[in-house]
Every structure is written in structure tokens, then in C-alpha cells.
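Catalogue entry: protein

Sequence with per-residue C-alpha cells
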Amino acid sequence: MLSASVETSPQVDVIVLSPDYPKNMLNCKEYLSGGVVAAFECKTTLRRKHIEEFVEHSRKIEKLAFNENGTPRKDLQSKIYYGLLAHSHEGKKENSNPKEIIEKAIWEYNKKYITHPREIPDIICVADLGVWKSQKMIVPNYDNVKGLKGNFVMSGYVASDNKEEFFTPVGVCVFDLLQNIAWRYSSVRDIVTYMRKLNIFGNARGYARPWEWAILSEETRKNIYKLKNGGFLDEWSMVID
């Protein structure tokens, strides 16, 4: 992918282009980042080092996108949806816990490389194991038992785990990608609504990383900060999918 400043992205294996992307440029070796909706790295067998490379690359790809500010979604979600796809994983030894290994790696490398919620990669999908999806939310007036109080942005990964008839890691990945695309392209919203009713995503569990309120742009904070009896409006406590 090529940015407006002629910077190139790390190598990716699959890209999804905007339907408006110029047809006569489809055979070029490099694609304009402004026309890329999603990008994926693909692995046959997922290894821990792949997760580190993926998270590190996510920072670089976020810099290529034409991102904006002014709303929670614009502040926190990159315009280029970025994922890691794998057929299988290396954690198949007896008594190993591959899900735990992957989750620990995700958190370790996010803390090491990620400096803003918008840099967080969107999804890791291992076809024969599970799927981990990023989630961001704004939480005004947060108060937990560990003494964390105030207005925060929360980010994290939720692992999808369900035995429903329609649940598969690949299905979750497709659904999440379409749900993201639906924010920009109304033509896919009906199929997203249909898939949501099937509970494609299943049940989610995960952990959160707090970010200071100042991580939001000044414009977004002004738009959110609508006082009502000295506090935030309840509807602004929201998830940014």
C-alpha cells in the first residue's frame, strides 16, 4: 500500500479495496492506501513471532490511512481494517493451552508497540481454534474496585467462544469485517443485520486497557462533553466496534 506521502506499508497478503477504486489501477503492484478498506496477513501456522510482527505492522499501517477526528469512532478506529488470518497454530503439544498463549502474546505486544487505540489491529482469526477481536469504548465517570476513577477510553481484545450452530472463527471474522465496512457502505448493512440475528459472533470475554481521556481529540471531547447535572450524558458510554 502507498500513502499520500509515498510511504509504503509492510507486506500484506490480502487487501479489500473500495468499490470506487479506479478500475484501471487494479493491476498495479502497489495500491493507494486511500482506497484500501481492509488488509490481512495470512499464515499457515500461527507462531508467537507472527503476533509480534502483526502488532508492530499495525502501527505502520495506521499511519498510511486517511484518518480523521471529531467523533469517538473517527478518533479510535482506523479506516484500514487490519487482521491476521491463520489456518492453525503451533500450540498443539500435550497439556498446552494455545488460547492462553495467544492472549498473553496479544497483550504483551500491544503494551510494547501500541501508543494509541487507533493503532490496535482489528482481529486475529485462527480457523481451527478461535478468534480475537479488538474493541474500544469511551467510559465517562468510570469507577472500579481497584481505584481507577474518572473519564477513560478502554481498549482490549475479546475472545469469541460459542458452540452455537452457526459459530465458526472464520464466520466471526467475515461478520466483523462486514460490520466494519457497513459504517461506510450502506449496501452491506442488511446482511450484517441478518448475521447479527444468527448470533454469528457468539459470546465474548476479554480484558481492557485504560487510556487517559486526553487520547481523544479536543474536537471529540467537546462534542462528548454535554453537561447534564454536572455529568456526562449516559448515551456517550458506548462501544466503538
